[in-house]
3-isopropylmalate dehydrogenase
Amino acid sequence: MAASLRLNVRPFTSQHFQSKSLPKLASKVTTIRCSATPSVRRYTITLLPARHRPRSHLRRQERTPDHRLCRRYTRIEFGFKEMPMGGAALDLTGVPLPEETLLAAKQSDAILLGAIEGNCTCTYKWDTNEKHLKPETGLLQLREALKVFANLRPASVLPQLVDASTLKKEVAEGVDLMVVFILENQGVSAQTRMVRRLVSTLRSMLLMRLIELLALHLRTARKRRGKLCSVDKANVLEASMLWRKRVMAIASEYPDVELTHMYVDNAAMQLVRNPKQFDTIVTNNIFGDILSDEASMITGSIGMLPSASLGKEGPGLFEPIHGSAPDIAGQDKANPLATILSAAMLLKYGLGEEKAAQRIETAVLDTLNRGFRTRDIYSEGNKLVGCKEIGQEVVKSIDPKVPIAI
Ligand SMILES: NC(=O)c1ccc[n+]([C@@H]2O[C@H](COP(=O)([O-])OP(=O)(O)OC[C@H]3O[C@@H](n4cnc5c(N)ncnc54)[C@H](O)[C@@H]3O)[C@@H](O)[C@H]2O)c1
Ligand SMILES: CC(C)[C@H](C(=O)O)[C@@H](O)C(=O)O
């Protein structure tokens, strides 16, 4: 439940995130009040959208909170705080993760991130920046500062989207897997520390993280079909040899979970050959990042995959697995469902609000059942719509009057 994952506020003193002060307008706080009863559950959510516009620049309807999302849950109240990060923060403050943004994130119950690249139609604007001034570094710094170490990426082929998969129907149908990996948050501060630290300290830190991740993941695997495939490159890489040893040792404490091992090159092939053989995959950051992008296409599109970054305590970070899609920026073509499903993961894993999470997932399914599709998941016989329209349709489906139709 939420209590075990609640916020862990510590004063923030790191020098690495110091920046110009944010302009007053940069932070927008919106409260959606569903009820004033004493039993109300209150959550503060930090929103980190790709595009950060000062409140005065928003159109009137954008300033008005949409109450439909919580009308059905009369005991939940959300306070949303929108802050800049990544490209938007670079434009505003000169750094990708301003101190104010990090503080707001740490003080919230959960964080929902859109994309890190800002609202940039001028593709790859920050490509030549030094590492500490790249939008991606803001994300790595944020993950590191929040101490999130496990990234969960579920990839399921929805019955409504079987035709959108790039694989044959009989191969894609029924796929339901989860890729989990250790986040190696090598932000600027981590990198600096890493060269200073003794190798042995670093190694034991990584091992501790691995143990924590595996414990979490083995519990996840238990809740699923109980099959865990550890993906590594233990035939070549020393780090992978160590990984495999540890995985075997830890997994021996979970005899009800069936553990298998696979080399990453084989795993990449098996994912398109027979993805149904996988239940849960556990691996490292780089392999997990690549395999989850591959898995997304089995489900129809990278625009469908949400993710959760979790730590032992403190707020979790929830985001779609895709990036800022610069090739389609500003064209109303992006699929927002991965972000919407990330909000569902936020409710489920971040706040323990499973019913509210289910409602969002059901609304997504209902929207697909009604035939709405963005270009990336379009198949014949459906209604081709843009990003905004499909988002509005999901909101309509959240309306309590809409019957649940899975
Ligand atoms: N977690 C993150 O914030 C994250 C993840 C990946 C990439 N990035 C960043 O995003 C930027 C662009 O990277 P990239 O082009 O390699 O990856 P990308 O995920 O932005 O785009 C890859 C391809 O997928 C498509 N795509 C992505 N999201 C989509 C959506 N919602 N709907 C429909 N199509 C979608 C794009 O149009 C593009 O063809 C880079 O700066 C990268 O570092 C950020
Ligand atoms: C943008 C980048 C820092 C990030 C990563 O490598 O972790 C991304 O690829 C992801 O999938 O979240």
